[in-house]
Design goal:
This protein has 121 residues and is mainly alpha-helical. 59% of the residues lie in helices and 9% in strands. The protein has one domain. The strands form two sheets. Strands 1-4 form a two-stranded parallel ribbon. The longest helix has 36 residues, at 21-56. The protein is elongated.
Length: 121
């Protein structure tokens, strides 16, 4: 028996662009820049989330300035999260996957082709 939501789902097939080693090498400065942006935005979002949590956990009843500061930290975290997602989508558009945003690791799928043995003179 099939589940109702599985019958309506269509499987999306995605064809990955396989880079040559030379293409990956030449695109590396751009990819490194985007990965740095991903890392910075992720860390910034985490910082704002932590600030908002700390403000929420303060003992006692929050005053007006504490409520405003917590709300601003939450909004800043959302904005940083949106910028993070935008940078991740930028990498996905060129078929590069971010493995670990904090470590700054990305996966570039490339194909290694053995030399044919022909020598060009």
């Amino acid at each position: 028996m099939k589940r109702p939501n599985q019958t309506n789902k269509k499987r999306r097939r995605r064809i990955l662009k396989l880079w040559t080693h030379a293409q990956a090498q030449s695109a590396l400065p751009y990819i490194a820049s985007v990965v740095r942006s991903i890392r910075e935005e992720r860390m910034e979002a985490q910082q704002y989330h932590l600030t908002a949590q700390r403000l929420a956990r303060r003992p006692g009843r929050p005053d007006r300035s504490a409520i405003i500061a917590q709300d601003e930290a939450r909004r800043d975290a959302e904005r940083a999260g949106e910028r993070f997602q935008k940078a991740v989508r930028e990498l996905h558009a060129i078929d590069v996957d971010c493995l670990d945003p904090i470590q700054g690791q990305a996966l570039i799928p490339f194909v290694y082709r053995k030399p044919t043995g022909l020598v060009r003179l």
